[in-house]
Inverse folding.
């Protein structure tokens, strides 16, 4: 009798919740009590997250889903994409227009398709090396990731088709390269070359979309009759849409040198990324660091090797903003320019504009040097640290630095081709990419 009274007194001292669980008895009560104890120890019922649970809690459904998709798509790396199309447009001597915007949209879709497909293909490997990734953690199902990859690929090809058949052909090759890389070539020796080819094709996509294949001869010269009765033959100054466009093969040839520079950088970044999970490679970061320095010197040498007044080789340089004549190094006309084919008339204002014309090359060279220096500064130090200490964290930093370094490299390529305005627009993406990289890793 006494032990019963003691048990009743102990139950009376317990909290109401535990008292009900004890009184309920049976296996159900033991099961619920075990879960309550486990949640109390792990912290899921309080403020600390459970380290061994990856599924979203019921109270954070939508926010956690958005976060999972941003991690899957690595949205902080998206800012390295628009510069490809802008550099491609600059390489063919055209101002960005509707075709360039379509190329940027197609590139973004295909880039994100590759990100989703990458995680889908690596889901078993990530379950061991990166269990926090969205698919192995259970926040995104494999069928959803694969469906997103397919849908984004179709959207990218549809946007490229709106830019013309040459752009669609290049985008189709780019999409095929992305899928073959993720599904087969990633873990082979051809992996870095496939990624380099994808980035090369992305720049060429911007070039062909901006300068699509011509549908026939452009508008012929029109005749203007000045007040004094002197007939002067003028060629119209068309904009990006109405200009007699460069044939597709010519656009590819003009943009190929810049595309190869970007592809070489991508090859190095991909080679380093193959060791980011385990680390242990010193020779690869050193070799990529030497390649980065060589590409920087090549970009600067292509501009400084020109003599004043000498036209640039297509794809390698530009005509110092095209002031006065409005002609770029690749032989295209900038928007708002005019070309006189009749007798040359000297105007008294010609000398007055000479100082402005002479300062344009200096400004372009200054911007080119600044952009190239930013490229070397962004990619170089992380590669050096990874070479000195090839641990997984430092190797991942080197990969992230290489991805971010694509932005100043694209800006330098656009400026070298005579489009410093496009270079400045590309560099404006750097703060956004750096800020978002603190929240979502680009690797």
């Amino acid at each position: 009798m006494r032990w019963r009274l003691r048990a009743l007194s102990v139950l009376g001292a317990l909290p109401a919740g535990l008292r009900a669980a004890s009184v309920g008895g049976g296996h159900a009560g033991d099961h619920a009590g075990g879960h309550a104890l486990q949640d109390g120890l792990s912290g899921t019922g309080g403020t600390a997250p459970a380290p061994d649970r990856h599924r979203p809690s019921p109270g954070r459904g939508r926010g956690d889903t958005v976060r999972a998709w941003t991690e899957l798509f690595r949205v902080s790396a998206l800012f390295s994409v628009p510069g490809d199309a802008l550099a491609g447009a600059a390489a063919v001597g055209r101002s960005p227009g509707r075709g360039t915007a379509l190329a940027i949209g197609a590139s973004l879709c295909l880039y994100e398709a590759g990100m989703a497909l990458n995680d889908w293909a690596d889901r078993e490997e990530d379950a061991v090396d990166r269990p926090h990734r969205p698919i192995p953690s259970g926040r995104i199902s494999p069928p959803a990731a694969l469906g997103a990859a397919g849908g984004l690929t179709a959207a990218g090809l549809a946007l490229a088709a709106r830019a013309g058949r040459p752009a669609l052909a290049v985008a189709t090759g780019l999409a095929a390269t992305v899928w073959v890389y993720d599904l087969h070539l990633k873990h082979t020796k051809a992996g870095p070359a496939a990624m380099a080819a994808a980035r090369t094709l992305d720049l060429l996509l911007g070039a062909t979309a901006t300068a699509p294949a011509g549908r026939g001869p452009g508008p012929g010269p029109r005749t203007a009759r000045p007040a004094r009765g002197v007939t002067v033959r003028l060629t119209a100054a068309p904009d990006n849409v109405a200009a007699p466009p460069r044939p597709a093969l010519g656009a590819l040839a003009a943009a190929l040198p810049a595309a190869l520079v970007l592809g070489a950088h991508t090859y190095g970044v991909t080679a380093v990324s193959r060791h980011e999970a385990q680390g242990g490679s010193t020779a690869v970061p050193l070799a990529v660091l030497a390649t980065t320095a060589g590409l920087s010197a090549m970009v600067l040498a292509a501009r400084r090797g020109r003599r004043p007044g000498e036209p640039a080789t297509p794809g390698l340089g530009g005509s110092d903003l095209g002031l006065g004549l409005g002609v770029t190094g690749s032989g295209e006309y900038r928007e708002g320019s005019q070309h006189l084919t009749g007798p040359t008339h000297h105007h008294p204002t010609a000398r007055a504009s000479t100082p402005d014309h002479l300062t344009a090359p200096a400004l372009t060279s200054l911007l080119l040097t600044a952009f190239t220096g930013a490229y070397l500064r962004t990619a170089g130090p992380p590669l050096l640290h990874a070479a000195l200490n090839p641990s997984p964290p430092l190797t991942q930093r080197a990969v992230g630095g290489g991805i971010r370094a694509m932005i100043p490299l694209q800006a330098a390529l656009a400026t070298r081709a005579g489009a410093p305005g496009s270079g400045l627009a590309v560099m404006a993406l750097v703060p956004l990419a750096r800020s978002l990289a603190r929240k979502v890793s680009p690797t």
Observations:
- The longest helix spans residues 354-388.
- DSSP finds 16 helices and three strands in the chain.
- The beta strands are 222-224, 232-235, 339-340.
- The CA atoms of residues 237 and 338 lie 5 Å apart.
